[in-house]
Records
---
Amino acid sequence: MTSLIQNIGRLAVRTFRRDPKLPAGAFTSHYEQLYNLLNAVTTQDINLDLGLLHDHGAFTASKDGAPVTYMQLYENSDVTICVFILKNGVRLPLHDHPGMYGLLKVVHGAVSVQSYSFIGDTTVEGPQSGLMGSPTLSDILPATKHQLLKVCASDPACRLCPGEQNIHEIYSLDGPAAFLDILSPPYGTDERFGLERDCHYYQEIESRWEVSQRESNLVWLVNVPTPSDFWCDQTEYKGPIISEDGDEHGS
Ligand SMILES: [Fe+2]
């Protein structure tokens, strides 16, 4: 019998397969199915070690090791399925997902999600989307700041797409938190299209704007190096193996 996470994995592969021969509308249909299925996932479904979720109090780098633990469930050339575990009071720094879709489902605890959308980001689906304007350090980019969300395990997944809510910062709230992430295409080298999808980090710049600009949620984001206090260790996935079924391209 196929488990929920295996079904999610297969559907994610089907949804994000970059095949130009797929009929129009297939993506939307699969994506909505995937979103609904993902909303039911729990820590039990992925056999998450509850020891990783133990609350040791406010994070201290000298005694707690990495602030964030990464666990990869599956990856092929089109999609990454992974879990991020955040210790008490830490954050995934403000970062982007160049040309990528993302689904983020909290499975333990609660997080705050502060999202932004680059203004003038007219990226559309396709291998080049979101990559033509890759920022270099110190680039300053205008963005819309969205409403701060508090998301917990009983809430539906958050979504991001190539041109919308594509930059975010995520804090654990009131203790450790864990969320399942489905990202497509994956970060890194895209061998199929000969592209690099690097993750860039940002800081919001304080500015003395006119009231009208502040009220419109217009902000400026500066591209910065990876924050030195942020790093991940890794843990092995011990849940049901996500098969290659439905993955015609292999990994
Ligand atoms: Fe992210």
Note: The chain has a mean pLDDT of 89.
---
Amino acid sequence: MRHYHTVGVGAGPANLSLAALFESVAPHQMALLERRPSFAWHPDLLLSGVRLQTSWLKDLVSFADPCHRMSFINYMVSTGRAWGLLNAQYDFIPRQEYAQYLRWASEQLDCIRYGTDIDRITFDNGFAYHADGELVATSDHLVLGLGSKPSAPPGLVGVLGDRAFFPEELTSRVSLLDPADPVAVVGGGQTGAESVLELLGRGFTRISWFGRRPWFQPMDDSPTANDFYRPAYVQFLQDVPRETRRRLVDGHVLTGDAITPGTLRAISQANYDGMLRHGEYPVTLYPERDVVSAEADGDRLTLHAVSPVGREQHIAAHAVLATGRRAAEPPLDPELLERIELDDTGEMLVDSDYSVRWKGPDGHRIFALNRSRYTHGIPDANLTLLSVRSATVINSLFEREIFAIRDTSVSTRWQMAS
Ligand SMILES: Cc1cc2nc3c(=O)[nH]c(=O)nc-3n(C[C@H](O)[C@H](O)[C@H](O)COP(=O)(O)OP(=O)(O)OC[C@H]3O[C@@H](n4cnc5c(N)ncnc54)[C@H](O)[C@@H]3O)c2cc1C
């Protein structure tokens, strides 16, 4: 049991980036506590052919410290893959490559303690971390990097089990399913699309794909949409009143929570190829369908959907519920939780430096990564600004500008200076 300056709970990309920059500022004073037995990045969603949605330049460290040894470029060069990857001319690199980069980066750090599932964090003149009833570490400061987990709307939760499951289970279950059976994929986002593509690749011929939006909408990756994914815009958001900020961020949803055009093209072409082979399209698309409930009866599922023109029923043997993700619950002791300020939706209040507002003594800070969509915008749940966010946290923790964040060459005026 050791005392640290800072402990990060979770060793996903968010805390990995923080630990990478932290190590170069204050070596051996930070630990990451991770429940997994070894490093992995959404391992159950690494379906065949999936691509990163972000430029590989947006790695764990480079936009804060371009000379850092844990850059993606260093990974590529030191593993001998740089020329191979470059000459393969990907628009977006395989997600598998990025996962291997993250694993390589995790191996450069000796501060990660795996197999440590933190079930309780208490505070008594310092944060104390408990796993399986044992005190495993203490620290002055806490950083929550817990990520998210799959979720289903209330009306679908009841059918989760043999016949309906989250995409995380698709790889392990798909070989047990009969490709001739009708399968429903619920969810018109990227994970739903990737599930459809996986089923197509496995020879399924009766796939029904449901999405709530008017059509299966592509992600807007245009230069102007990408302006929301830069430090200057995040800075601009900080000065906007809360309610306006919420409205603005809701308007940006298609820049992040949508399907990459490449995936949509791949589905359309595989569907057309399937039609040429079998005489019928293997995928039927059902846009503007809100699947609100379902019931299982023997070997079939009945899905109830609401559309603008009425209600519908659809029968399937199985359903993949790609119905979104929600933030993982922080394992805070009730006494500690009571000291944290929440907003009107029950979410922790996160300030512009990613610190959580709480009633604690000086010298003990809590930071939350990937939990401030309405403070920092959609990129907070994304890889784009990982290194910038980590730099902001470290500058705030050490109360000086250790990492400079420069984004001054901006041609967009989001608001005229008054
Ligand atoms: C399939 C998928 C693909 C994505 N692809 C992209 C992309 O291409 N580009 C992009 O910008 N964004 C992408 N994202 C969004 C986002 O970048 C990732 O979700 C990213 O992994 C978020 O990092 P994180 O560290 O916040 O959370 P996570 O990666 O979820 O890591 C959280 C870690 O915390 C651990 N943990 C949780 N609770 C505890 C606990 N109590 N004790 C100990 N450990 C705990 C978990 O085991 C996990 O390892 C993707 C998301 C998904 C789901």
Note: DSSP finds 14 helices and 17 strands in the chain.
---
Amino acid sequence: MPSSEKPRSLERGVVTSSFPSALPDPTGLLDLDTRHVWHPFTQARTAPEPQVIVRGEGPYLYAADGTRLLDMVSSWWVNLHGHAHPAIAGAIARQAQELEHVIFAGFTHAPAVTLAARLAAELPGRLSRIFYSDNGSTAVEAALKIALQAGFNRGETRTRILAFEGGYHGDTFGAMSAGATSGFYAPFQDKLFQVDFVPYPATWAGDPEVEAKEWAALSALDALLGDDVAAIVLEPLVQGSAGIRMARPAYLDEVVRRVRAAGGLVIFDEVMTGFGRTGRLWAARHLSEAPDLMCLSKGITGGFLPLGVTAATEELYRAFGGDSFAQAFAHGHSYTANPLSCAAALASLDLTLSPETAANWERIGAAHERALPELSAHPHLERVRRCGTILAAEIRGAGEYGGNVSLELRQFFAARGLLLRPLGNVVYLLPPYVVTDEQLGQAYAAFLDAAQTFGRPG
Ligand SMILES: Cc1ncc(COP(=O)(O)O)c(C=O)c1O
């Protein structure tokens, strides 16, 4: 039986009911984990044992068995400034001693108001209203509902939603509907609402067909547009879960203009691309056009606590004003605008807007750029691409997206001290901004080794 298929033992270790303190006992913990924990996006029957992580510092995660992992995927794209950053940890601790939470209907508080005002000052276009929720999926869910209800409140009959093929927007039903072609939702297909999908002209360094793909995608969009379109939702510049697929800003600008000319709203899902991943604060800052709604989460708290934001224009907000509650946005979550999350987000925003972080975006981008020629020249790599701090390439002949090779690749990288989580044969780096050039060098070298080991020439 290949080691990746080894069933996790139910028999190991002593089961204790308290969490291990100073010296964690990985064996006991894994036993409890096997009995009681249901991990996300994991086939427990075939997945290797999860690794017990006891500490994080900078770009490193420290495991109970004494090993150290360089977190090159920012722990599912949430971490920005390194693990356990003292400024964010301190802000949460201070806030916890003042006010941990309060119902956000009928009440407000300084962390939520300050964060809303500071985000509004940085957001593109006329986005000035902040609706809080808990995560990326709920941020998208709220955006879709706002787009639909705004039309409903105005007496319009616009109900159709458009999205890009391959796009991923989260795992709640609205987000799944908008991500129906991402390949994750077979058991739910007949429960998803109708969304029309526009081809996504993914591109890479030296792609000779990019313009032809963009024109074809634009004419497919034209064929879908009509006076019943409420909105398009899209991941600007980089589709994340679809396999780090990149599109050009000029093309996206044209999409925005055409949807808007047809009277539809534009929703940017910047859950992954936000807070500097693309080398600017927002992917939207690479475009001339701005969205009507924007979704943020993941990096918003620097990776410390869950928080979702749906930013809207004042014009959209006004569509919900009226004499009756029926026009209000009847949507909310128990932990809406949690003060601890908002305090973490404010501390993270200070770090994000610092000159040091901007310099790090430049530095990481420049390092990726220097690595591109060698990666592009490797006969086993194809479609090498970069956007800001994100670098990706496909290992030729190593199976398609969704194949089993990603698990083997994960183990290959782990053996070299790297946390990398390829999406099928797509290997990508999406590091915390504190990663050093030397650490990036280690990742590029492992990338080339993996290509050599798993790939074959075209
Ligand atoms: C672009 C995008 N939107 C939405 C989501 C969903 O976010 P969450 O996992 O916080 O629900 C993700 C998660 O990967 C994402 O990448």
Note: Residues 126 and 208 are 36 Å apart (CA to CA).
---
Amino acid sequence: MADRVLTTTGSARYERNTCMGTREEQLSPEEFGIAARRWLSERLGGQPDTGDLDAIQVARSFQADLYDAGFAGITFPAEWGGQGLSAAYQQAFDEEAAHYELPNFVFLVGLAMCGPTLVDLGTATQKRRYLRSLLRGEEIWSQLFSEPSAGSDVAGLRTRAVRDGDDWIVQGQKVWTSRAQYARFGALLARTDPSVPKHQGLTMFILDMHAPGVTVRPLTVMSGRSPFNEVFLDEVRVPGDAVLGAVGDGWTSALTMLDHERRSVGSPSYGGDTRLSFNSLKLFAESMGAAGEASVRRSLTELFATERAVSLLTARLREEKREGQDLGARSSVAKLTGALLLRQATAAFTEMAGPSDLAWSADDERHVAIDSAIKAAPSVGIAGGTNEIQRNIIGERILGLPREPSVERGKSFAETQGSGEE
Ligand SMILES: Cc1cc2nc3c(=O)[nH]c(=O)nc-3n(C[C@H](O)[C@H](O)[C@H](O)COP(=O)(O)OP(=O)(O)OC[C@H]3O[C@@H](n4cnc5c(N)ncnc54)[C@H](O)[C@@H]3O)c2cc1C
């Protein structure tokens, strides 16, 4: 059997196989990082032989290995299949993982958003049923919040869920649903009571994406890929025990998930090596022979400092959250600074690339990778709430500035203009 990391709540051990049998060692976060480095280099170093496997199979196999090696769900509670370790261990892993393009991006919505929300709000039965298989990559999750007329104003959504005995019948449409075409489950936000103000009549459900009436249509973007989908919900029957949180309190469930999403999207480890970062730009500068130039060194140093600050902020928030502290709206600060960090990285690249940034040959892998990272960068300022929305939240909830004026305040959803309700 291979060497592996074993964890119990609060501590990690390394089980090493020697010719004398197995030996166990306690691991500090630093040693955990070293174990992660060794594992990642063995698992992802060199050219992985993926044979005939497609990207989803590769992702599943990697996530299962990551889980079995003790590096998935690092801060998830041990009782629900996680490793039960502190944010310092996650930080140590993230620093090592930043050197690789982990092939498990398809699980991100589950690992970073739906999974932590299940931990916070799920019943024991839900946690038992979903968490371990989510962490091990056996079931992919998606988030069904946004609609054609409800993005920034997600509480204005129109998808309806109406009671039918113990079940609910769902009717409506979602959009921008990341990786729904692969998903087995989705966290669905729907309106269950239009007679109260819009934030009060929502409920979150765990949706079986294979249920009759669920139609997923991929949306192709300019890169030729289909990261998003439209999801049509036509008389979809959802059982009563699929409510995540409380009936009518879906806004709390949504804020819980958005809080996790904002810390995750803001984190410099989000997107791994596909993201513009100090590491990728340092390599680029070296390959251009420009790493010694004063202006390049200054840009890289500034980028390193900002990246480090954002990374420490997200790690601190993650640890406070794990300890049960109230983060208030501080995840919005992490999200906004993470998005601005990418803007800074794009500017640093443009400056160091100079005229060579204008055109390159299609087989120049280095440039092609950076080009796709630059194209992906603005999306971080949109997903999980745009930069403008984060600024509004920070202004109102942290700085105490006046709330935005609203003609809807105090009115039921059905009364508000454009609700589509009779
Ligand atoms: C990469 C990516 C992945 C995504 N994945 C998912 C997913 O899996 N599931 C899901 O449900 N959604 C997903 N989304 C959708 C995302 O949540 C929405 O795009 C986002 O909330 C913005 O909504 P919108 O696109 O409708 O823009 P709009 O809300 O129409 O906003 C348009 C512009 O108006 C500005 N604006 C709007 N309201 C205000 C205001 N009050 N004050 C100041 N400015 C304002 C916005 O900042 C923006 O610039 C994803 C988006 C991206 C980019």
Note: The beta strands are 4-8, 11-18, 21-27, 141-144, 160-164, 167-174, 185-191, 202-208, 214-219, 228-238.
